[in-house]
Write a structure and sequence with these properties.
about 280 residues; about 75% helix; globular
């Protein structure tokens, strides 16, 4: 095992032998599960849903960027004036929901009166249950690969890119949440943040890029931005998760399916951080 110093504390990283064993096991299980997951998915949702062309333009993307910048500029001084601690889960998670929520509302306002626009966002009334089942099967088949990426991520950063690996601050916030912070973290991290992120990245960004880049290009580029949003310390596993979510959106064209998998992933990760914090953070 190797050590990485993070904020004056030692974080134990898997050594080469552990890496080979864990990644090899994950890949072996993944290659067994993947065809089973694909077959189950074809049973649950046999035909890909038709794409509805989005109504968005580059101006909508620019507007969202301005909304994000404006929210960042406004909230910082406001929190300082109110003496709120952004390092506290009870503040940081609702603040994230507020920013993403305003951005999502901006997109929704753009297409609210146009049913075709709502469908392009993945807001469709029928077959959501089957779409969710399809998404769960795909996530289950990809889960061993995602775990392998989680194992690889710190060593790629340390030994390939020469960067220091630092666990995400949001993970420490979750692990250290207590009392009234716990329901706030659960509602925000498992329900609201995944909903807003899927609305913005799969509903808006991926569908908007698809016309210019094609399905695979749209999934790849939107996944790159999604991974960048979460920081370099989680880039590989987040990119992998986003590829799964992008595929689900391409096949089902339903936001409910993407949100269900994202919520399932965040819920299981949050549960592990609550129950086994010492496995993720030392000291």
């Amino acid at each position: 095992m190797t050590d990485s110093v993070v904020e004056g504390q030692s974080v134990e990283l898997p050594g080469p032998a552990d890496l080979v064993a864990l990644v090899g096991l994950g890949l072996a299980i993944g290659f067994v599960l993947r065809p089973l997951a694909r077959a189950a998915g074809r049973w649950a949702y046999p035909r890909p849903a038709l794409r509805v062309a989005p109504l968005f333009t580059w101006r909508d993307g620019a507007l969202l960027a301005l909304v994000w910048i404006g929210m960042q500029l406004a909230l910082g001084p406001l929190f300082i004036a109110l003496d709120l601690d952004l390092e506290a889960a009870s503040v940081a998670f609702p603040a994230t929901v507020l920013v993403f929520g305003v951005m999502s509302a901006t997109v929704l306002a753009r297409v609210y009166a146009q049913p075709r626009g709502l469908a392009s966002l993945g807001l469709r009334p029928k077959e959501n249950g089957w779409a969710v089942l399809y998404a769960v099967f795909q996530y289950g088949g990809a889960l061993p690969f995602l775990i392998a990426l989680m194992v690889l991520n710190p060593l790629v950063l340390e030994h390939v890119l020469g960067l220091d690996f630092a666990p995400q601050k949001v993970g420490r916030m979750i692990a250290e949440a207590q009392g009234a912070e716990i329901p706030i973290v659960l509602v925000c991290a498992v329900v609201l943040i995944p909903l807003c992120e899927e609305f913005l990245f799969r509903g808006f960004l991926q569908n908007s890029l698809e016309g210019a880049l094609g399905p695979r290009g749209a999934v790849a580029l939107s996944s790159f931005f999604f991974a960048a949003l979460h920081g370099v310390s989680a880039a590989l596993p987040i990119f992998g998760l986003s590829l799964v979510l992008g595929h689900v959106m391409l096949h089902t064209r339903r936001l409910s399916a993407c949100w269900a998998v994202h919520a399932l992933h965040n819920g299981s990760t949050t549960a592990l951080l609550f129950l086994l914090p010492d496995q993720f953070f030392e000291g």
